[in-house]
Amino acid sequence: MARGSDFLQLDASAVPRGGRTEWLAAALRAAVAAGVLPVGSRLPPTRALSAELGVARGTVVEAYQRLTEEGLLTAARGAGTAVAARPVRAPAAAPSGTWEPPVFAADVVDLATGVPDLAAFPRAAWLRAEREVLSTATARSLGYAPPQGTPELRAELSAWLARSRGVRAAPGQIVVTAGVTGALSILAQVLRARGMGDIACEDPGADGNRAILDHWTGGSTVPVPVDGDGVDPAALAATDARAVLVTPAHQFPTGVVLSAPRRRALLAWARAREGLVIEDDYDAEYRYDRSPVGALHGLDPHLVAHTSSLSKTLAPALRAGWLVPPPHLLEDVVRARWAADLGSPSLPQLALALLLRDGTLARHLRTMRARHRVRRDAAVAAVREHLPGRPILGVAAGLHLLVLLPEGVDDREAVARAEHAGVAVQPLSRHRTAPGPPGLVIAYAGHGPARLRGAIARLGAAVRR
Prior knowledge:
Layout: H1 20-34, H2 46-53, H3 57-69, E1 73-76, E2 80-83, E3 109-110, H4 123-136, H5 151-165, E4 175-177, H6 179-193, E5 199-203, H7 207-217, E6 222-227, E7 230-231, H8 233-237, E8 243-246, H9 260-273, E9 276-280, E10 304-309, E11 321-324, H10 327-341, H11 346-357, H12 360-386, E12 392-393, E13 400-404, H13 411-420, E14 423-424, E15 426-427, E16 439-443, H14 449-464
Parallel strand pairs: 3-14, 5-6, 5-8, 8-9, 9-10
Antiparallel strand pairs: 1-2, 4-11, 6-7, 10-11, 12-13, 13-16, 15-16
Helix pairs in contact: 1-3, 2-3, 4-11, 5-11, 6-7, 6-10, 12-14, 13-14
């Protein structure tokens, strides 16, 4: 008869008879220390565990007693045996290079995280869509979705991108991803396999995107300067890169728009180099004081890989994004998506397809655009009052603005003083590779006007110190 317990997958069959008590005590001690048995969790009754393990009940009783004497377990008549405490030990260090979302103290106003007003997430509409999906889903719908994404979501995204961004992509050309991060991870692997691992990035440019590409290409990203017209194609041409990541509609973090001559020059570079332009269209939906700026992809779908997500429109928690690669890369991209994790979960995709189809997402975006414009106005007014004379960039669109500081100011020290004063922002230098002017990146969308005014007043006082 098979011996062993599902509890901690314990198996005493190979343990010498005289050492079973110590073996069991050590296994339980290790499980408590690792958190596998959290404080308060109950252990199996001694009679049941001894029967499963094929050992004498006294063996289990003695092992429990040892840990009780050590203070790790507690036993009470009628209540059984439970974990009382974890052994004191030094916390394990996080793996080198592991990214964690920033966590600020409760009294710190977070103007560092670029998200929309998450309190306005359309919960009722989302619940309605999920209920409808579950009430109408067939058994087949609960199986594996195609690695490209569900046909329903790709069809709705095809129409949405054509209407809102000028991206002409049939459903079969769209790959659903885990946000822009997932799209960049897949593209980086595909490009490296094709000998195109040197990928140029805007400088300054989003440090998170650069880190993702460095991870998959072995740290071979190439900085290319940005000025008032966007990324510099001449500087790009001077590198050996055959791919470049750009944010042409609202450059991060400067907020500039890639000019029409630069757009043409960038595509000419890609054509001559047999290269690729990766377009991160991360917050193009939000514009306040300017005309619409179409996606670069619409100018030449054979040279541009277009990616964006719903992280700025709905919420990052959805991890919902897409990638429209050029036709010659589509098969490789789909294979890489399949190899990564077989594709995104299908049920949330079906819910998103409903929200796109019935107009909920479009209505939500209109509401959020108006709300974020009010917050943008409050943030700009507060910066002008409390950091007078400082240039403010990127205010016409997006969810953040950039405030340039005087030459010689250490923006990282200014950020540290601001956080001490209860306000979190990002230093511009965090997003630079080459030296450049100092500045502060302020994400304003997550807070109402009154809270913004108070936070920026404290920020101004901290910077002036």
